[in-house]
Amino acid sequence: MSSERSETPRPLAPNDVLPPVEPPSAGFIVQLFVIPAAIVAIIIAVWATFNWLAHMGSDPRNYVEAMKRNNEGRWQEAVNLANELNRAGNEELRKDPKLLKDLADLFDTEIDAGGMDDKPVSFRVYLARAVGEFHLPESLPPLIKAAKTNRDDRERDVRLAALQAIARLVPHIPQAKPQADPALNDVLAQAAKDQDSVVRYHAAYTLGVLGGVDALRQLEVLLGDANVDVRMNAAVGLARHGVAACVPELAKILDPSETAGMLAEQNEKAREGKQFTMIANGLAAALQFHVKNPTADVKPLIAGIDKLLATNPQTNLKLEAEDVRRKLLATAAAAAPAP
Questions:
Q1: What does DSSP assign to residue 33?
Q2: Phi, psi of 19 (to 5 degrees)
Q3: Is residue 2 predicted with pLDDT exceeding 70?
Q4: Which of left, alpha, beta for 211 (phi over 0: left; psi -120 to 50: alpha)?
Q5: pLDDT value at position 63?
Q6: In angstroms, how far is CA 201 from the centroid of its own chain?
Q7: What is the DSSP letter of 246?
Q8: Residue 139 contacts residue 104 (beta carbons within 8 Å)
Q9: Which of 8, 57, 116, 157 has the fewest CB atoms below 10 angstroms from its CB?
Q10: Is 291 helix (H, G, I), strand (E, B) or coil?
Q11: What is the arithmetic mean of pLDDT over 218-239?
Q12: In whole angstroms, what is the distance from residue 34 CA to residue 11 CA?
């Protein structure tokens, strides 16, 4: 009986001849690259075609007609119209008086109907947003009406949406001189005295955008508000117009020890995020104030920034603080009397 000897494969030697290397065939390249690329191109083309057809078939002016039909999805039509009005290149649409009149009439009807269920309230919220996207002074009356209509706590979101919409609208209608509109000043004055701090917060922001004697007077009153967010918006609004009354509050906002005390009731994570936002807004407001009122005393703001820098803040906040400090110091040096 003979046994078979297993042979161990001989390792390759340097002189052994390897199989020739052949370039990939055309068929292999087509399968690996061309076909997948073609599939991707077809998918993109189909998506683009459907997207184009969708836009071709949806005239924004038809949205109002769709909203007049009392169905479950009409709030979506309001959202679609607001998005179209906000889209770059739609300046002509934002100045369409016929479209605005149809929308404003519908908004007025919905306010008068006063439904307090979730859907009619949400519908009025989106209508306010859409009306505020126009660049026509005729947007203002329905928004004022919505901002002052306060029949139920459930209507608060409509009031807030109207205040936000007014803030978006005002910069686009300077020819209408909204600062001198007594109805607008009255509704903002009432909102600034509201028991709800969120309403006062939005009122302060809108007052800051509006400007004018009455608005600035209201903002100075709001500097003494019990709510830190209201005080911050009041200070930022006054800084936008170069009113020196904002300086003490802005200096506190820039000082981390002050802002930490203002937010003591919040948990640590929320406090850190809010504190960062407040300080960043304070720096931007200090710079606005510097530009608007270059001869004002900015030493309290510089002192607040020094306290901020002493805490070694995050890099981007530190760089911003150092930049603002340099500009404020230059202003202070220029305003100092010659020896």
A1: I
A2: -60, 145
A3: no
A4: left
A5: 87
A6: 15
A7: G
A8: yes
A9: 8
A10: helix
A11: 97
A12: 40
Dist. CA 278–CA 244, nearest whole Å: 19
Give CA–CA dist 148/155, Å, rounded.
10
pLDDT digit string, tens, across residues 271-321: 888 899 999 999 999 999 999 999 999 999 999 999 999 999 999 999 999
One-letter amino acid identity for 253? I
Burial class (CB in 10 A: 0-12, 13-18, 19+), 66: middle
User: Residue 311: which of 269, 264, 256, 260 has the closest Cα?
Assistant: 256
Q: What does the block give as tokens for 10?
A: 């001989």
> What token pair was written down for 150?
């306060």
Pair of tokens at residue 99: 């479209």
The answer, yes or no, to whether residue 65 has pLDDT greater than 90, is no
181 three-state secondary structure: coil
As given in the structure block, the two tokens for residue 187 are 């509704």
The contacts of residue 172 (CB under 8 Å, 6+ apart) are 135
DSSP, collapsed to helix, strand or coil, labels residue 222 as helix
The answer to whether 47 and 41 have CB atoms below 8 angstroms apart is no
C-alpha to C-alpha distance for 61 and 101, rounded to whole angstroms? 11
Half-sphere exposure of residue 249, counting CA atoms within 13 Å on the CB side? Answer: 29
Query: If you count them, how many residues does the chain have?
Result: 339
For residues 192 and 190, give the distance between their C-alpha atoms in angstroms, rounded to a whole number: 5
CA–CA dist 107, 158 (Å, integer): 11
Amino acid at 169: L
Look up the pTM and report it.
Answer: 0.79
Nearest partner of 129 among 89, 99, 156, 169, judged by Cα? 169
DSSP 202-271: HHHHHHHHH-SHHHHHHHHHHTT-SSHHHHHHHHHHHHHTT-GGGHHHHHHHH-HHHHHHHTTTS-HHHH
